[in-house]
Amino acid sequence: MLRHLLNPLDFSVEELDKLMDLAVDIEKHPAKYAHACEGKVLATCFYEPSTRTRLSFEGAMYHLGGHVLGFSSADSSSAAKGESVSDTIRVISCYADICAMRHPKEGAPLVAALKSGIPVINAGDGGHQHPTQTLTDLLTIRSLKGRLGDMTLGLCGDLKFGRTVHSLIEALSRYKGVRFVLISPPELRVPEYVLETLGKKGIPYKEVQSLEEAIPELDILYMTRVQRERFFNEDDYIRMKDFYILNKAKMELAREDMLVLHPLPRVNEISTEVDDDPRACYFKQAQYGMYIRMALILTLLGLEVQ
Ligand code: NCD
User: Fold this and answer.
1) What confidence tens digit (pLDDT) does each residue in 84-123 have?
2) Three-class SS state of 184
3) What is the pLDDT of residues 50-70, one digit of tens each?
4) Euclidean distance between CA atoms 123 and 103, whole angstroms
5) Which residues line ligand 1 (CB under 6 A)?
6) Which of 1, 82, 170, 285 is the most buried (most CB within 10 A)?
7) How close is the Cα of 81 to the center of ligand 1, in Å?
């Protein structure tokens, strides 16, 4: 049975625990895994720009001893000639063993998975979901906080178009004692379908506008970039883009053990003066991204290392 990762809920909490344990073991004992994917090929099909996600997938496969092929923009693929993702994935299934796909259209990796002969990983679909960023975020939180439940998590910025936000909220809503503080201007609120999930599960959340007022109660602050590429007009983007800027003064209002996460890329929403604060964990977070993707590739390929 082919297994894909399209949505953060495709793995149970127990499976996620196993995946994170594997990532931790990979980080500790890289040599043990250095040949685990020998002879295997990962295709990275990126129809949208990426630095971390694509390169951490590629790095992950190289560190497992496998090979990588792919494209990094729609312009350099047959999408420019009008080919559908269904046809593209059928062809790629002949050349590769597993595929990570990023696409500007919501649902494109799902459409690909329906016709694919190999596991498909959603590496970000439009303003919808970004499950492998969520795996990264969960591993970061578990490693640095020692737990995934019993915490107040503030998400700040573009909660409307930020796919990492939607995936993280859905994934964390399965852990006990999680509370969300959703910090955004009214125009960039979390979409209704995500709020409905929280409502149905009875998970406490509040929507606020002021970062200064919210910050003292947070265990984790998850900052996000305003998603320029998803705006219909540039004026709205310009009005919104500097709505939140986390700086030293705001960090003084936060708890001593609050963690600051950000999926990156950062534009202006975290001042570089915050980077030296021990609570700033976004670069460490990017590092966890490669280990969890190594664990994911092994798991979806059904490979076990003794
Ligand atoms: C995020 C994405 O692509 O959604 N980036 C990433 O993969 N780390 C966040 C963003 O682009 O703002």
Assistant:
1) 999 999 999 999 999 999 999 999 999 999 999 999 999 9
2) coil
3) 999 999 999 999 999 999 999
4) 8
5) 52-53, 124, 130, 133, 163-164, 225, 263-265
6) 285
7) 27
pLDDT score, position 306 = 87
- Token pair, residue 253, equals 């209002």
Rounded CA-CA distance 183/246 in Å is 12
133-167: per-residue pLDDT in tens? 999 999 999 999 999 999 999 999 999 999 999 99
CA angle 210, 212, 215 (to 5 degrees): 105
Q: For residue 263, which atom of ligand 1 is closest to its CA? A: 8
- In 3D, which of 285, 208, 282, 286 has the Cα closest to residue 243? 208
What are 306's two structure tokens? 């003794």
Strand (E) or helix (H) holding 95: helix 85-95
Residues 6+ apart with CB under 8 A from 141: 148, 151, 220, 259, 261
| pLDDT of the residue at 80 | 84
